[in-house]
## 1
Amino acid sequence: MASTHVVAQLTTAPDAQQWWFRITGGALLYVLSTVLLAIAWYALLRALGANGVPASHTLTIYSVSQFGKYLPGSVLQYLGRHAMLRAHALSHRLLVLCALLEAALLVSAALIWAAPLAVNYVPVNAPMIWIVVVAGLTFAGWLLHRYAPTLGGGIEVSPRWFALAFALHLAFFGMMGITFRVVAGAEIFATTGWLTMFAGVAASWIAGFVVVGAPAGVGVREAVFLALFGAALGEQATLTCVSAFRLATFGGDLIVFLVALPFAAAARNVRGAT
């Protein structure tokens, strides 16, 4: 019944057109979110000493490979990115470490955004979580600065670039929250409040990320969001919002992929000619 309601709400309901206007606006905003992730990936490469890959190539590779998260297994984006950057003579060790660091920074940034919801489920408050996350990142940064260069593979650690990457990941989740606000509408946010809703978006992302095998967290994020807000917003309204949000994020990823694809092909042809 709930899924039937969602389909009807987005197709035959009197306000269906308004939903699609908001979905389109959300997709365009989510393009900016994906661009933030691509820039953060470039910052991580620079943080590990990968200075030989032009920023334009890095952003193109990330934008094209990122769409692989929608395929079964949800790992093809990492494999594609790794393979394409290996063509630029980056070592396996550097690229694997970069992928692991990206995952750690993304989860850390999401935890900072999701922290206001923690008090409802565990005996800690948001400031405690923020302190733990920042302390953990600081310690991890010290370990990297001291030991990562010993791994070889051309790894040289730059804390300044790491800080920039983390700031961009924080901005990514902020942009995700804004995208959800545009798609869901003002009434939904008025019910829960901005901070709580942004926290819910980040918490649902964490769930979709850690559940291995779910393409782009499909189904997992929606289930978590329903568990968090279904009682307050109503099951049907919540499902409609998260379904529309999923369409917007998929649309944003698709736009980035299609725009970047010709640039990736041109770069491949240049490398082939040389």
## 2
Amino acid sequence: MSILTDTAGAHPARPAADGRARGPRDNRAAVVMATVFLVLAAVYMLLPVFWLLVSATKSQGDLVDSFGFWFSGFHLGENLKALFTRQDGVYLHWLLNSLLYAGLGAAVGTLLSSMAGYALAKYTFRGRELVFSVILGGVLLPATALALPLFLMFAKLDATNTFWSVFLPSIVSPFGVYLSRIFAASSVPDEVIEAARIDGAGEMRTFFTIALRLMSPAMVTIFLFQFVVIWNNFLLPLVMLQDERLYPVTLGLFTWQSQVSRDPQLQILTVTGSLVSVVPIVIAFLALQRYWRAGLSAGAVKS
């Protein structure tokens, strides 16, 4: 026993799949390779953000003439001032529209998805699996395939070029219903629901006072996914809206970029506006990540 401890340290070498012992060197090599891969992946993901940050600090001339991935002067304040004063502050209006579409749409969509997922998980009724299969089919449908039918539907109702033409389709989330059902089935015990019914609680009260609290980690996930999807949505507003005052920030920046050939100054404003548009998403993730951690910790501890 002492020989094994002295030669192999605290943990003896474990045999690999091919029968050979795997020593500390092999483990270190695997850790180094995994670390290198993760660093390269992080660089790949963050490089566009770094370019955006660097480019937003340049003047229009420096944006064209200087090296793209390093600073050349610092004109961020001037760019921000020009961004928020252009066309009587239309960019701020676009930003508020996006916050309304994404924030309110994600909140309502999360609530509807949670209610539908809870019902599919906890109630037994005829055709339940068929309904769930149809919802799964909706997850596979691309947004581009739905844009034209949605436009025709809203055109029949004379509701195109309105707030509702972008908001109402945004609150539907088949993926949210799927995730809610899976989470409700595993995190909301049937015994708790039955105890609430015995105590005289109705179905709505049981859902809002008990089930929603137990499903909060899934709801945060659904909200963030839906928020990002609505915030980055471009095709639906492009099809539905003609009034510039109703544009979200994605469509507004696209219209500026399409006019760069006539007004080159719009190029730096588009870059600066893209940087500003990332900030709400970052804030949302930073503000809600603690709910993820709390949910994971609660699920990891068995009482």
## 3
Amino acid sequence: MDISSTGLRVLRQIAESGSFTAAATRLGYTQSAVSRQAASLERSAGAALFERRPDGVRLTSAGLTLLRHARTILDCLTAAERDLTGTVPRTELVRLGLFLSAGAAILPVSLTHLAATDPQITVTTTEGTTPSLIRALRAGSIDLAVLTSRPPHRPLDGESPRLHVETVADTELFVAAASTGEFAGRTAVHVDELVDAPWIAAPASNAEPLLGVWPGLPARPHIVHCARDWLTKLQLVAGGFGVTTVPSRLSPVLPPGVSLLHVEGAPPEIRRVLVARLPGRPTPAITAVSRAIASTT
């Protein structure tokens, strides 16, 4: 096969981003250039590498096989460039991905623990939804991911081989409301009282349901604000501009003026925090970061 390193980078970015358009944006290419690289890869491989679905592009089994080799080749090229330029890393690098609320609740404590126990390890982080982080893991763009799942906690994806997944903690979902106003002085609210509440939600995607609205709400939610940033959402709550759902692990970092309400009249909503990586023997640095994350619970 005659495959260029550019083609392998395009393959990895398509696997991570889930679309040709997003891959082009991240690589700084035109979409037509990415499409040409993808077609060239398929001609060289003699097999279909990409499957176009309603929710984006996924790699076929042949594409996943080539991706595994692409990760090794691109890592070797990076190491060769480092050796040729004499830039020897002084620390061990771990690229960590986190779902959106994990940054506030888990990351600072984990990094503090890691700095005390393994100061030679450097961690870089990126945020994303659980589906996007799984794609990044598969593509080799991150080494470790903190993910979340809801019952019945099915496998994170259908690809083979399965990701190595460890449970960090289970946490209950609450509703965050202003400490003054309609729910002032309360610790619980009935789900029927939330039907007409103004909701602050994160934008929905095809791969993940609307975030920030109580999942068992017995009516269509009245959404008044859409925001993905947790600081924005919680400050809107504190100002009395709406309510949103919050995992209990965020309670230590809530701003003044926000109270958490247990939801009655509906089954508890439990979210599981997971640490995932590619299968196989992890590096000592990845093991140390995993251990630091587990220490936060």
## 4
Amino acid sequence: MRIDLHTHSTASDGTDTPAELVANAAAAGLDVVALTDHDTVRGHAAAVAALPEGLTLVTGAELSCRVDGVGLHMLAYLFDPDEPEFARERELVRDDRVPRARTMVRKLQELGVPVEWEQVARIAGDGSVGRPHIATALVELGVVGTVSDAFTPEWLADGGRAYAEKHELDPFDAIRLVKAAGGVTVFAHPAAVKRGEVVPESSIALLAAAGLDGIEVDHMDHDEPTRARLRGLAGDLGLLTTGSSDYHGSRKTVGLGEYTTDPEIYGEITRRATGAFPVPGAGGRGPA
């Protein structure tokens, strides 16, 4: 089985619609794909409706969190999307994305970048606006060469010149909320140092003690020594280890299935989940 547990669609900051994403996942030879848009579940219904036969969909979300001033992302899988408290918290995070993005646009303008809000809004479309949309605007303007080049202290990285904070969950609260909704939590790309400051291993140990299920190890932003260190840490803490592409369509160079999760780990994730279940494809309508 080929299993990719971290992808994004146009419901947040990917470039594939949910229907296109599942079609492309099947074409890439995946057996299982997780749709984990940022702080939203809006793409799930369209992905399910278009799910090709032979592909299983894991519903999820990537939650924006912050602890001790350091940002982190928490992948949540197979939770009940209608659990009231968790749904309210996701809405708070989503609602703060527009004013935060407007603030970053203003900061860029103050730095002499001729970016306009209308340009960012066009790029975001119906998705939850975020830094990748602003980064894409910087690419269009020729300010940076790639989206990744915008995530530096000079521009949009945490603490960067144009960075602005938004409402984010405490990761301990995120674990509690996801668990209460029957879901499973995995700390996304925990050692992606090129994105900015990362949480120390001591904090990961505290998160594990609070119920964190796993950490994402095989990821494009982790080199081989980092992956080996994370596997050792996961073993010490009793955490599951996952691998994922963090696919964003054409917004990133990584392809679907470039990094994958062991089938036994996937099986354990599904065994722990009680809020929702993987959806087997029965032949959808195709991309829309």
